[in-house]
Amino acid sequence: MSRYLDSVCKLCRREGEKLFLKGHRCNGPKCAFERRSYPPGEHGQKPPSRVRGDFRRQLRAKQKAKRTYGVFEKQFRNYYFKASRQTGITGENLISLLERRLDNVVYRLGFATSRNQARQLVKHNHFLINGRRVNIPSYTVQVGDVITPRERSRHLAVIQEALDYAKQRGAPEWLDIDTDKAEGRVQGAPVVEQIAMELETQLIIELYSR
Fold first, then answer.
1. Contact 105, 184 (CB under 8 A)
2. pLDDT tens for residues 24-72?
3. Rounded CA gap, 118 and 136, in Å?
4. What is the DSSP string of 28-72?
5. Distance between CA atoms of 29 and 50, rounded to whole angstroms?
6. In whole angstroms, what is the distance from residue 161 CA to residue 130 CA?
7. In sequence order, what are the residues at sequence separation of 6 or more whose Cβ sits closer than 8 angstroms to the Cβ of residue 1?
8. What pTM does this model have?
């Protein structure tokens, strides 16, 4: 399956809210969602249908989560079934698995301004975990892992620009970032309350339980 190559701004418009897929551009005047907050397509500006069945709400919840983290359908389904087999609450397990993806952690730490950018940087061998190179965006980080750019990569303009922005944005409580050293650490497990977005995990569970 090929990765989505159309404008990611259409994904935000389809979900009816910003997913921040283009980094800090989403906070500026060039944000497409600010200019056209209706769904894409020729019928986008028509009044939405009043019929919103359970399946439609469940599907939208799943699509929002999948698009936010930039994973394929098969990947997302595998994350769900893995979460359902773990002890604890399935919805919280699912969020934890998605949050601990390396590309998401690179973004959360502030080494990239978007998850798409973080994914590219990881795939191009710019990051180390505990001193070892890892170029798999879906790699699951563990508590205690230290994430750093490679020595030759830490002065890249794209990483420096992201770190400057990270000083204002900050990182979630389960991560620690030293912007001066360009060093991040996983200091705990992510919890839903620390995620700065509303993901309706119960609807996702209902969808896969049908």
1. yes
2. 555 556 565 556 655 666 555 665 554 458 899 999 999 999 999 999 9
3. 11
4. STT-HHHH--SPSSTTTTSPPPS---HHHHHHHHHHHHHHHHT--
5. 31
6. 24
7. 72, 73, 74
8. 0.78
